[in-house]
Amino acid sequence: MKYRIQVAGQEFSLLAMTWPVFVELLLQMLVGNIDQIMLSHYNQTAVAAVGNANQIMNTLILTFSVTSLAATILISQYLGAREPDRVQQVYTLATGMNLIISLVISAGLLLGVDGLFQLMQVPMEARPEARSYLLISTLSLPFQALMLTFSAFLRAHARMTVIMLSTGLINIINVVGNSMFIHGLGPLPQMGASGAALSTSLCRLAGMVMLMVAFFRSVPGASIRLSVLKPFPTSLLKRLLAIGLPAGGEGLSYNLSQSASLVFVNMMGTFAVTARMYSNMFAQVCYMLISAVSQAAAILVGYCIGAKDHELADRINRLVLRTFTPITLTITVLMAIFAKPLFSLFSDDPAVIALGQQVFLVEIVLEIGRCFNIVLVRNLQAVGDVKYPVTVGIISQWVIAVGVAYLLGIVFNLGLLGIWIAYALDENVRAIVFFLRWKKGGWKHLKTV
């Protein structure tokens, strides 16, 4: 079967690796959005507050991906090259780096939260709840950092099912916690956005513990030992940063550009912020499948690069694009057709529902570019071509996704619809550039492990 792939002396099933990642992403989306969904029955101001707070949190959490993405890439390449000693060093180095980074970020956020809200033009009526949500969530950032780190280790070893099961349990904890803390259960008071933040923090703690236990139990020879860093592997640290900073920088730039364009949306009023939040939530459903298969494919591409099998890496890339882009577009078209009842599930505001319908027509075009970007960026990172995606990403995201968004949304008064048109243009421009980059084949000559 074309979905069964032989690499580095092992046989892998792309579909068997994909479905646990898909379920994991689905559950992650629920964990990420369940606060807004459950708060939508509390009040719409809380939804806007958490939407702004989560934009900040998601951007900061991406800094942990600098180390996590690099760890996944290096571990998969070292496994393909059959160098277990290097793998052990990556475990310890990545864990220490993300723990230190998370503590520094948490301290900075606790001191600068009010300034961030002022910079983002968060509506005044949403600021009190946004502030309480963000401050409580900040305390759990070290748990989130370690959770992402151990998830990266398990992913590199193709332990997708373990991650999926852990995410499922986290989701259950979050739903139960929200039910208890948002509306109040028994003697517990109604805490609104603060309750949602408390529930999310407990989820991160539980997730960290479960993934650590899964790592040490399911990965042969797994250990975190400072002794493996003596003498300190300076060359490995440089390589980790050389891969991680550009690889994580692409995602970080994207989220920062989204935060910048959110400033424009905040200027349009709470109804636009709410419509944007629900639109993003539904958009995640559209690209979730191709995001899942691209993660599985990138692991296999990393193995191929470690084993010096460039032809197989190219074949995997083409297989994913040709098979899953049409599926993603079909899902998006269906969601655009049923946009009105979907948005009506979470809001009874006619302005929010109408705006959501308009946005999702543009979403169809946007997803064409996003499919190619998701697959090609991950595969370019997996082969070690990490600087090019972040360079193109920064230029396009800030010139088009922010600059054109301001022009269409504010100057030409197209509102959220204009901003979404700019997003679609950004995604498709980058898709063309990355496709040509991969097709040119320069990545076949890059130095790897």
UniProtKB/TrEMBL annotation:
Its main location: membrane. It is found in: Cell membrane. GO terms for molecular function: antiporter activity; xenobiotic transmembrane transporter activity. InterPro entries: MATE_fam, MdtK-like, YsiQ. It is a multi-pass membrane protein. GO terms for cellular component: plasma membrane. Keywords: Cell membrane, Membrane, Transmembrane, Transmembrane helix, Transport. The chain crosses the membrane at residues 12-31, 60-79, 91-113, 133-154, 161-182, 194-216, 260-279, 285-307, 319-339, 398-423. It comes from the Bacteria. PANTHER family: MULTIDRUG AND TOXIN EFFLUX PROTEIN MATE FAMILY (PTHR42925), VIRULENCE FACTOR MVIN (PTHR42925:SF1). This is MATE family efflux transporter. The lineage of its organism: Bacteria, Bacillati, Bacillota, Clostridia, Eubacteriales.
